[in-house]
């Protein structure tokens, strides 16, 4: 009796298993892989945020106003721009109209400014929450 040659059976079995997994994938394994990938992405994003916070803390400690004062400067620019666009410019336009002078005061495009301002206010809200939670108060 002749012996059977079984050398190609393993590769055929692997090919069949691969085809079956493509046709009927294991849903729990796929969900597990999705979860692991999402966890890795969130961990990397979290690490980026932590590093940025560390940089922010070091900047805030600096004695030079050009290093530590850029955030307050942007805050003042945003506040002044809002005051001009929503209070000063409309009032002065009305006043110039009453006096009979042609109004040439431009209104600011607030789209980009609002993006910056809302981002800063969000960070400000988180800082206020942190101060409240940890009992940190401004001294002096």
Helices and strands, with pairings:
Blueprint: H1 9-23, H2 27-61, H3 65-68, H4 70-99, H5 110-134
- Helical stretch tally: 5
Q: Number of domains in the coordinates?
A: 2
Structural class: mainly alpha
**Largest sheet properties:** none
End-to-end CA span: 101 Å
List how many beta strands DSSP finds: 0
Helix content: over 70%
Beta-strand content estimate: under 5%
Q: Averaging pLDDT over every residue, what do you get? A: 76
Element string (H = helix, E = strand): HHHHH
Query: Which stretches are poorly predicted, pLDDT < 50 over at least 5 residues?
Result: none
Radius of gyration: 31 Å
**Coarse shape:** elongated
What does this structure look like?
- This protein has 140 residues and is mostly helical.
- The chain folds into two domains: 37 residues; 72 residues.
- 78% of the residues lie in helices and 0% in strands.
- The chain contains five helices and no strands.
- Helix 4 crosses helix 5.
- The radius of gyration is 31 Å and the shape is elongated.
- The chain starts with 8 loop residues before the first helix and ends in a 6-residue tail after the last helix.
- The model has no long low-confidence stretch (mean pLDDT 76).
Keywords:
single chain; 140 residues; mainly alpha; 2 domains; 5 helices
């Amino acid at each position: 009796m002749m012996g059977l040659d079984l050398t190609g059976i393993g590769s055929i079995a692997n090919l069949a298993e691969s085809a079956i997994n493509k046709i009927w994938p294991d849903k729990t394994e796929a969900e597990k892989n999705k979860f692991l990938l999402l966890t890795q992405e969130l961990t990397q994003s979290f690490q980026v945020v932590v590093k940025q916070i560390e940089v922010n803390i070091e900047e805030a400690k600096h004695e030079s106003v050009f290093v530590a004062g850029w955030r307050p400067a942007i805050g003042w620019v945003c506040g002044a721009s809002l005051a001009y666009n929503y209070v000063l410019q409309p009032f002065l336009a009305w006043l110039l109209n009453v006096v009979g002078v042609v109004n040439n005061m431009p209104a600011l495009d607030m789209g980009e400014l609002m993006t910056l301002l809302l981002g800063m206010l969000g960070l400000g809200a988180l800082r206020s929450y942190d101060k409240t939670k940890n009992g940190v108060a401004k001294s002096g």
